[in-house]
Structure formats: structure tokens, C-alpha cells
Design a protein that fits this description.
By secondary structure, the protein is an alpha/beta fold. It contains 14 helices and nine strands. The chain has a seven-stranded mixed beta sheet with strand order 5-4-3-6-7-9-8, with helices on both faces. Strands 1-2 form a two-stranded antiparallel ribbon. Helix 2 packs across helix 5, helix 4 packs across helix 5 and helix 9 runs parallel beside helix 10. The protein starts with 9 loop residues before the first helix and ends with a strand. The mean pLDDT is 97.
Length: 329
């Protein structure tokens, strides 16, 4: 059926000026606009006093955040929306995304300025950061992982499982939140050897050391074995090539009990009529940042099938990747 909707430039312009909204969000977070509203609505003068930003600039930022749905504006007074209150208010937030926004502003945005070269040459991006830059990078990435872990636990039922293997991930937050939701769940972490001390410290800090085992092994070649009823492969596949990923899934299958469940959490390019935007954007982000790859979901399904897994569906996590769920065939 041919659409009869009249053409408008609105979608094109919204995409083209999207970087403006992003930069205003980064600035609003950096100057404490959202935290200033945690105790209740304020007018422009109140926001200027609370943030130390001029009334002209804080008005621009507040109006932009209101236009983009993060604040409401009534009779000249601004208030937080539930989304902003939950994720942008510092110590008051359920999960403060400020470190992730700071990473996007300081590192990712600068890297995207070279995106034309990435498109024209297909040369992978590289990061050239000092120690402080790498610290901010890791802080932002781990904060984003915390968000993904929270969304995973909200959208997948971990209660049937007892013996999990977390294979090759970068953050222990996924299994830690799953164990918090299911007191019967034990997790064996098999991570890169360099990550072992930080993972051990994290599970101890979370009070989960008595239900956790942390082992070091190179992800691409690790053969953990065992009889696990749940296997987590979180943010792994985009870091490895075709042959390595085939091996990772084969080794994961060899560590699975009969009927085990596999969760593959990552961004995917799909073949649906409408590609999910966040995945396609991260395909550009990952390759432009450091040459890692967002794979087609159909390719990942082929890897799984060849390794003895039966894919059964995907679940899209809000503001986060998808999980591709498979069963031990």
C-alpha cells in the first residue's frame, strides 16, 4: 500500500540537529541543572542561583530539556520528569548516568568528529587517551553497563536458575543484579585475567562472595566446562571476530547443562522492517571508537546454531542492548 502522508522535513531536521540536544544535555548534567531540581520546582532565577550559571544560559538549557521531555515547565517554573529524577539527579538518582554522559561528551563526541574518515576509508577508529581520559572512559562505560544490567533484571526472570556462568564480560553488574534478584543463584565468573581483581572486589562489596567464584581466562580461548543452567555472554561478541565468536559459543555450549539457557547481550543489526535505532547508532559508535563490530542478528544466530544452541527470540532492553535468548539443543 502506498502511503498518502504528505512529505515534511521534520524527521530530517530532527536528526540533523540532534547533536545540539545532546550537547545541551551534557551541559545541563555537568552544571547540575537536574540535581538543582531534586527538591522541587525552580524558576530561572532559582536555577541560576543553584547552578552558578547565568540566567540567559540556564534558561536556554532548561527550555531545551523541557522541549526534549526531561523537564516540565509550568508558569515559568521547571520540574523534573520521572525519567530525569531516576537517572540524572546524582546521589538522589536510582542510577546516576552523569559519568556516562561525561564520557559521551569528552570522548565519544570528539571521536565522532572524525566519522567522515571512517565512512570514506573503512579504517577503524582508535582512541588516544591519557590516564585521566582512560579513567573517564572506563567510568562512563561501566556506568552504562550498570544501566544495562538494571534493565536486564527488570526484563528477564532469573528465578528459575541456580548455577550461572558469566563468560567473558566486562562488568560483574549483570550477574550481581541477577543474584540480588534470586538468592538461590550462584555465579562462576570466567573473565579476562586482568579483570579478576576488580570483579572479586565488586562481588565482595556486594556481599556476594559466598555465592561467587572468580576465575581468569582469555575469553576467546576459555574452556570453562561444567554443568551450568544459565550462561551469560554480555558485551562480548562485538569485541571478537567470526572465528573467535564461533569458538566462544562452542565453549559456552560445552559448559551447559541439558536444557540450559544462554543470554547474549549486545547490540545487533536486524533484518526487520524497521531497524531499532539504538543498535544502528552503536554500530557506528563502536567501529568509530575502536574498530569493534555490531553484528547482524542473523549472523549471531548462525553461530549459535552451529555451536549447538537453539535461538528462541530477542528482548529489547530500554535504553540498552538486546538479549538474544537460546537454549541448549
Amino acid at each position: 500500500m502506498t502511503s498518502t502522508r504528505a512529505a515534511t522535513p521534520e524527521a530530517i531536521v530532527d536528526i540533523a540537529i540532534g547533536f545540539m540536544g545532546a550537547k545541551q544535555l551534557f551541559a545541563a548534567s555537568r552544571v547540575g541543572l537536574f540535581s538543582a531540581l531534586a527538591d522541587g520546582p525552580l524558576d530561572v532565577a532559582g536555577l541560576a542561583a543553584a547552578t552558578g550559571v547565568s540566567e540567559q544560559q540556564i534558561r536556554i538549557l532548561a527550555d531545551s530539556m523541557a522541549a526534549q521531555g526531561l523537564l516540565s515547565r509550568t508558569d515559568g517554573r521547571y520540574a523534573l520528569t520521572p525519567d530525569a529524577a531516576a537517572y540524572l539527579t546524582g546521589d538522589r538518582a536510582e542510577l546516576d548516568l552523569a559519568p556516562f554522559l561525561a564520557f559521551l561528551n569528552a570522548t565519544s563526541y570528539s571521536q565522532w568528529l572524525g566519522y567522515d574518515s571512517t565512512v570514506d576509508t573503512n579504517d577503524a577508529g582508535t582512541l588516544d587517551l591519557d590516564d585521566a581520559g582512560w579513567g573517564a572512559f572506563l567510568d562512563g562505560v561501566m556506568t552504562y553497563n550498570e544501566l544495562h544490567a538494571a534493565m536486564l533484571v527488570q526484563n528477564f526472570d532469573f528465578t528459575p536458575y541456580r548455577n550461572a556462568l558469566d563468560l567473558g564480560g566486562l562488568s560483574p553488574a549483570f550477574a550481581a543484579k541477577a543474584m540480588a534478584a534470586n538468592p538461590e543463584l550462584r555465579t562462576r565468573f570466567v573473565f579476562d585475567p586482568q579483570s579478576v581483581p576488580s570483579v572479586q572486589a565488586a562481588v565482595e562489596a556486594a556481599g556476594l562472595a559466598d555465592r561467587s567464584v572468580v576465575e581468569g581466562a582469555e575469553t576467546a580461548t576459555a574452556e570453562p566446562g561444567g554443568e551450568h543452567d544459565l550462561i551469560l555472554v554480555n558485551h562480548v561478541i562485538h569485541r571478537f571476530d567470526d572465528a573467535q565468536n564461533r569458538g566462544i559459543f562452542e565453549h559456552a555450549r560445552a559448559a551447559a547443562a541439558p536444557g540450559a539457557t544462554l543470554l547474549v547481550l549486545d547490540f545487533f543489526l536486524d533484518d526487520d522492517a524497521e531497524q531499532r535505532k539504538i543498535d544502528a547508532l552503536h554500530a557506528g559508535e563502536y567501529y568509530n571508537i575502536d574498530g569493534t563490530v555490531v553484528y547482524q542478528e542473523s549472523v549471531v544466530r548462525d553461530w549459535l546454531t552451529a555451536a549447538g544452541w537453539t535461538p528462541r527470540g530477542t528482548v529489547a532492553l530500554p535504553g540498552s542492548p538486546r538479549i538474544l535468548i537460546a537454549d541448549a539443543a
